[in-house]
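TOPIC: backbone geometry
CONTENTS: sequence, structure tokens:
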Amino acid sequence: MSSTDLARAVVTALIEAGVTEVVVAPGSRNAPLSFAVYDAASAGLVRLHTRIDERSAGFLALGLTKVGARAAVITTSGTAVANLHPAVLEAAHAGLPLVAVTADRPARLRGTEANQTTDQTGIFGPLVTTHDLVDITDVDTEAVCAARGPVHWNVQLDDPLVPAAPWPVPPIEVRRPSGRPHPRPAETLPLGPRTVVVAGDDAGPPARVLAESAGWPLLAEPTSGSRTGDHAIRTYRILLGSPLADEVERVVVLGHPTLSRPVMALLARPGVEVVAGRVPGVWAERSFPVDRLLLTQTPAVDGRNDPAWLDRWREADRCVGKQLDDLLAAEPGLTAYDVAGAVSRALPPGGLLVVGASNPIRDLDVMVPRYRVGDRRKVIANRGLAGIDGVVSTAIGAALGRGSSSRALALVGDVTFLHDSNGLVLGPDEPRPDLTIVVANDDGGSIFAGLEQGAPAHADRFERLFGTPHGVRLESLCAATRTPHLRVDSLPALEQALASPNGGIEVVEAVVPRADRRELDARIRALRP
């Protein structure tokens, strides 16, 4: 069959599988696919996005997928495909059904020196299966429809690569996955020993419901979807270094906890019983010992615990929280914790917040308040592999995909921002969300200051290897992409900037120090109730 017919069959299958967002990176070999998507978008069946950088394109599609949209990204052959690898890996480990459609040379040119020809079958490794498409019989809508992780369609396209005429796209019916979902088993946990609930990334409301039903403290990460209600303990990371943590006898883990060494130490502590739910993604095995694996993500309890256990955690949280706020208020100038706190307060009900890896999400973890149940704030991050790449594009994709958000914010570090500055390169016809990107700029990688690498013994080489100061003027970088930019260096100025968004994509650069980060973190960890 012709490349035009095959490309149209691929796009038809994507739409049948529920794909509504398609990101295209320009190329010659993928031209049949690009023409087909353009015609489908003109018919109102998909929304088209174009990006010149395939890595940014992949993360844009990932961001759309993270908020519930079905998205596909289409690239040409060669290194273009390899640039999708970071986004595809993140999708694989987070269990996100991102669809990567890559154009390839026909089989007769494989293994030759033909231009832009490499081995694209299995290019994403053993974690992602490649479906090599030669003709329409290879196009399986169900493979996308029922996917629980990323799908890779590698499409062999031969000359001619340009259609003779536009595609009069017929009506296409969206299919539903075949089969019925498996019924969830009823599962009950005994009240038993002193218990805390750890809610990692994407744990969702069940973690809060369980904690409230049993009367247990809730240790919820910002992206858990559980940091709501009066059982959530804001300063749990600090309290896990206090004697109160020594009394924990059981931990129920839902979601994917990634932020806190104290949490991981608790889960590995001898004598602590660990009950864990399953997690999506290609590797479901937990990194800590599990005594009991839950069959459902919504376990029930057989009663309610003695309220004294929860009351002690609440009182300790109030005490340490006040000490933390007083400590930060006494700091000269703006700190990264102040930035995280201001952003968390600026997120309204119905809002969306995308958080970068390294320090921003950890700063947010101790600063975000307990939001009210039912306010539908959505806080997300790329925690499958917790990389800093592609976060600007992820945030733009999430903001576009969750168009109902009352407001969209992103909180990233300067190195994360620079890592995906290409995400700000949008053509004049591209859909643009209203998104405020707050960059906590400390001119380098302050995350390492609090790790072993930041110890005084390594001071002679720390800056060159880990601190990596860059000296980039973000206002000039933003000007190059015509992105509005505002630089602030005080909490009142930051709060004022967050209170008056201009619309569209804008960058607020919050300048914070890095030299004293290790010492500040040590003082915070030392707080005790």
